[in-house]
Amino acid sequence: MIHRRLEAQLAADLAAFPVVGLLGPRQVGKTTLALELAKEVGKPWLYLDLERDSDRAKLSEAEAYLERHRGSLVILDEVQRRAELFPLLRSLVDERIRAGERHGHFLVLGSASPELLRQSSESLAGRIAYRSLAPLTLDEVGDDALDTLWLRGGFPASFLARDDEASARWRGEFLSTYLERDLPQLGPSIPAEQMRRFWTMLAHGQGNVLNSARLAAGLGLSANTVRRYLDLLTGLYLVRQLPAWAGNSKKRLVKAPKVYVRDAGLAHRLAGVPDLETLLGHPLCGHSWEGFVLEQLLAQLSDDWSASYYRTSAQAEIDLVLEGPRRRVLALEIKRSSPGRPSKGFLLGCEEVGATERFVVIPAGERHPLGGETEAISVAEALSHLGR
């Protein structure tokens, strides 16, 4: 098992909250992590897969069944299949809190965001800590695996495949399963081929500013339908909408979000990129690298941070603006090639957002100054810097 950075945080959450929600896309490793945690909690535990008929049948009388296992940690996997359980969980948790049993009752795993999970009126607010598990990150697999992680993405089965061909085959099956089975369960009926075309267009436009009208015209859909598709994929942790910086400015700022397929390996499979040699010569290369590094960096951050990008109508741009505790503002440019001096547009943007730290993130190499108070920093060192 590859140890995940989230392990310690989840253990702390189980010791502090009655319910912990572990969310993330399918096949990202949620179940493996949950079962490893269960072995360490020091109390009986029970695992129910709500996609399995036999386990769903156990919850036909859910209150009686869950009360029978009071005192155990109950793991409910793929909880979006039974979102109507949330009001019952609230009632059970409140009763146990009154009895002095304050934490570690339920660990719920889901493949959808809290917003998509709220198909009932019960949010479990104040009783649940939500954490999201990202695909594997560089600090979890080691710096030597940088190019493999970029090409194959961070889904464990894809990253650990015996070769690139097997990895690509797994990602193809993953995409087909999502399109044909998983999406219809969570949203309105969407033709699988139409959604594949949409997802493929996003992959080819990795990191572009959202233009709903252009996407709609290419698909023969309305702009509202495009936004609905996009929000669904975002809620399933498959697509990221990076908002535009919204601080005070006298300049004309681009306001639409930038859109990324969150896992680089899925983006490469959708774009038909089979191996690293092809990727390095592909038009997608630079934007793919940007999206990959962005996801590595954002996976390090707590909820105390906000992320955005900065761009003006005159094309002054910062790839990633991170605003965090102690008034830290990081401005980051992400480059696959060796950088020269930072551009005038980047430096102007840094002044506008009030950057306290300025970096150009590169694949590898020693940290060094570039001028304009900007430093070049490797991906690995940037992750360490943010972790501190």
SSE layout:
Blueprint: H1 7-14, E1 19-23, H2 30-38, E2 45-49, H3 53-58, H4 62-68, E3 73-77, H5 86-98, E4 106-110, H6 114-117, E5 128-132, H7 138-141, H8 146-152, H9 156-159, H10 164-186, H11 192-204, E6 208-209, H12 212-219, H13 223-235, E7 239-242, E8 258-261, H14 264-270, H15 276-280, H16 285-298, E9 306-311, E10 317-323, E11 329-334, H17 344-353, E12 357-362, E13 368-371, E14 374-378, H18 379-387
Parallel strand pairs: 1-4, 1-5, 2-3, 3-4, 11-12, 12-14
Antiparallel strand pairs: 6-8, 7-8, 9-10, 10-11, 13-14
CATH topology grouping of the largest domain: Arc Repressor Mutant, subunit A
The span between the termini is 25 Å
Number of helices: 18
CATH superfamily of the largest domain: Winged helix-like DNA-binding domain superfamily/Winged helix DNA-binding domain
The number of E-state strands comes to 14
* Domains, number: 2
Please write the CATH class name of the largest domain: Mainly Alpha
Helix content: 40-55%
Shape: globular
Q: Stretches where pLDDT falls below 50 for ≥5 residues?
A: none
Shape-level CATH architecture of the largest domain: Orthogonal Bundle
What does the average pLDDT come to? 92
- Indicate the radius of gyration in whole angstroms: 22 Å
Give a description of the structure.
With 388 residues, the protein is of the alpha/beta class. It folds into two domains: 7-132, P-loop containing nucleotide triphosphate hydrolases (Rossmann fold, 3-Layer(aba) Sandwich); 138-387, Arc Repressor Mutant, subunit A (Orthogonal Bundle), CATH 1.10.10. It contains 18 helices and 14 strands. The longest helix is centred in the middle third of the chain and has 23 residues, at 164-186.
